[in-house]
Automatic annotation (TrEMBL):
Protein name: Efflux RND transporter periplasmic adaptor subunit
Stretches assigned to the CzcB-like C-terminal circularly permuted SH3-like domain: 339-400
GO biological process: copper ion export; plasma membrane copper ion transport
Pfam families (UniProt xref): Beta-barrel_RND_2 (PF25954), BSH_CzcB (PF25973), CzcB_C (PF25975)
Domain CzcB-like barrel-sandwich hybrid: 107-249
Low complexity bias locations: 36-45
GO molecular function, one term: transmembrane transporter activity
Similarity comment: Belongs to the membrane fusion protein (MFP) (TC 8.A.1) family.
Cellular component aspect of the GO annotation: cell envelope; membrane
This protein's UniProt keywords: Coiled coil, Transport
Coiled-coil stretches: 150-201
Region (Disordered) location: 23-70
Length: 414
């Protein structure tokens, strides 16, 4: 059975909440007076409009389903996982201002190894490239000279090897001396070494130039990544110092935070960290502190701390400012409170909610919650949950989608 079929097989059970609630006495009256149903329904409809006029024309349709039933197959496909609500205190953290930076080991600068002029450009800012992709072609006059010298050395080395073979044949007939053969072999080795050295020089300049274009040098991407910058146009003269562009693999990045002297003794390499960026104030990026600098900035009196981050959904951009919250190893001196993982909390409308696993197989119930402080992926819950209840910490989006789908289906039905 496909995942889509599993989803279509979901059963949404609407709890009795709000203005759509009907008690058991009303159900009995409906059974006893079935023939009076049309007039009763009309009367009830009129009463509801008067009683709940503040809801506007939607009325009961604004109520959300509170309970969702999922089949075991859907639970598996959606990778739904739960964790118990626990009591505890939040970790103490230190706030480090800073910005996102590329990992130097995953970055490269594009430049020509020799002076020349740009003939072709094949890259743009923001483009994704693979290692070996052609980025630019540069006309390098020096390249032609080196290729000519290599060709000459190879030809001389070949002639020298042929001369060695000829002299050895003469030596067998006692028509030349052994010294002449030794000297010829030395010349052949020297010329072969010269040709090899020129080949290595060509390789350093960029081997693989198309045949028939001895002056053209092809520049290729040294790694997989994204083009961050470009300073190259056709016809532009370039030198070995000129940077034509930069490329970086942004699947993993760094957050470089600034640590003040008074906090330096409270940090440890390997401590857990969360980064909040100005661009994404409601999203936290988890990582770990992997390096603390050894040199104090004499002006700002700070040390650089490096936090390694996974760039999920390509949200992290080089230069984004934010704050890293790094654990110190201690806990806040306050009364214990209920705690849940941050991943368990989502928002529907303007309300924070979590999904609680019920005793019945495949049943989950939505709870409105009031949140307190948070730290390192953990959030305080002030109301709406009880200790030990199993809350969904993975697969929350699936349950949220089912709740919203149930509301849409109800409105469409009415």
């Amino acid at each position: 059975m496909t995942k889509r079929a599993h989803v279509l097989g979901l059963s949404l059970v609407l709890a009795a909440f709000g203005c759509g609630k009907r008690g058991p006495d009303e159900d009995q009256k409906k059974d006893d007076h079935a023939q009076e149903a049309p007039s009763a329904a009309a009367s009830a409809h009129g009463a509801k409009e008067g009683e709940h006029g503040e809801h506007g024309e939607h009325g009961e349709h604004e109520e959300l389903p509170r309970r969702v039933n999922l089949s075991p197959a859907v639970i598996t496909d959606a990778r739904i996982r739960t964790a118990p609500v626990r009591t505890g205190t939040l970790a103490i953290t230190i706030a480090l201002p800073g910005a996102i930076a590329a990992d130097p080991d995953r970055s490269a600068r594009i430049s020509s190894p020799a002076e020349g002029k740009i003939e072709e450009v094949h890259f743009k800012e923001g483009a994704a490239v693979k290692k070996g992709d052609v980025l630019a072609v540069v006309r390098v006059p020096e390249l032609g000279k080196v290729r000519g010298a290599q060709a000459a050395a190879q030809a001389k080395a070949k002639a020298a090897r042929e001369n060695v073979a000829r002299l050895k044949a003469l030596l067998d007939k006692r028509l030349t001396s052994e010294q002449a053969v030794v000297d010829a072999e030395a010349d052949a080795r020297a010329l072969s070494a010269e040709a090899a050295a020129l080949g290595a020089e060509l390789a350093a300049l960029g081997a693989g130039t198309p045949r028939g274009a001895p002056f053209l040098l092809t520049l290729r991407a040294p790694l997989d990544g994204t083009i961050l910058s470009r300073d190259a146009v056709v016809g532009q003269p370039v030198s070995a110092e000129h940077v034509l562009g930069s490329i970086a693999d942004l699947r993993e990045v760094w957050f470089l935070g600034r640590v003040f002297e008074k906090d330096l003794g409270r940090l440890r390499v390997g401590a857990g960290a969360e980064v909040e960026l100005n661009a994404y104030p409601t999203t936290r990026f988890s990582g770990s502190l992997e390096y603390i600098g050894q040199q104090i900035d004499p002006v700002a009196r700070t040390v650089t701390a490096r936090i390694h981050l996974q760039n999920r959904d390509d949200m992290l951009r080089i230069g984004l400012f934010g704050t890293a919250y790094v654990a110190t190893g201690g806990e806040q001196a306050r009364a214990p409170r209920l705690l849940v993982p941050r991943s368990a909390v989502t928002e529907i409308g303007q309300t924070s909610v979590v999904f609680v696993k019920l005793p019945e197989e495949g049943a989950f119930e939505m709870h409105d919650v009031v949140l307190g402080d948070s730290a390192l992926g953990t959030v305080e819950v002030l109301s709406g949950l009880g200790e030990g209840e199993e809350v969904v910490v993975e697969g929350v989006f699936t349950l949220k989608s089912m709740v919203l789908k149930g509301t849409i289906d109800e409105e469409g039905h009415h």
